[in-house]
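INFO batch 0412 | record 1 of 1 | parsing
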Amino acid sequence: MKAWQIFTHSVRQVFGNLTDALRISGLLYIVQMMIVVAMGVTSGDVMQINPAKMLLVVAVALVFSLWIAVAWHRFVLRGEGGTSLLPPFHGPEALRYLGRSLLIGLVIAAVAAVLGMAIMPLGLMLAGPLLGAMIGSLLLMVPVFMVMLRLSIPLPAIAMGESIGFNEGWKATYGETGVFFGLALLLAVFSILLGVPESLFRPDSIPALLWTLTSGWVQMMVGVSILTTLYGHYIEKRPLV
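INFO prediction complete | emitting tokens
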């Protein structure tokens, strides 16, 4: 099943190159999380946070996430990276990456809003509050992830200073709806399972915080790696090995 191959290839991309993954993302991610914790964003009382502090947290998270994503794409696809704990910052590429991501985000938000109004009430009605919410989330995440993944295929090209349009990525994956359904399902289940251990801890406890930070890093790196794998396979015609 190609969806499983893409998913496992992406996971191996991170954990098979764990030293490089930590070198490229570790320091940036730790600093980002230190700022998040210092501002109290993980305390659960987000509404009480000063808007200026929240804006700072969002700005830092955005810049650092773009920095990591661009550096990881370039490392995997072009072998760039060096030995520094702070990867090179490719400003123009990161800015274009941001612009394209915002456009994708608008499309995804619209799709999620329309589907959410229909799916979530249905899930709650059929299966009750807890199970219904989980089923509803899964039913919502799969189609949203399918659209997101296909639209996001050009992002690794942008990270490398190249340019392909949404239509090129869409055409390259024509006829692969089943693959993207399977991949979206795997990614949705993966995301839900990563969140389960956190519910076992008291929300304001150290174990809960540590799991949130660890699972956040894993989800970020696997997500970026899936886009890298999709671009490498469908655009550069690399085999899934």
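INFO post-check: The chain has a mean pLDDT of 84.
INFO record closed
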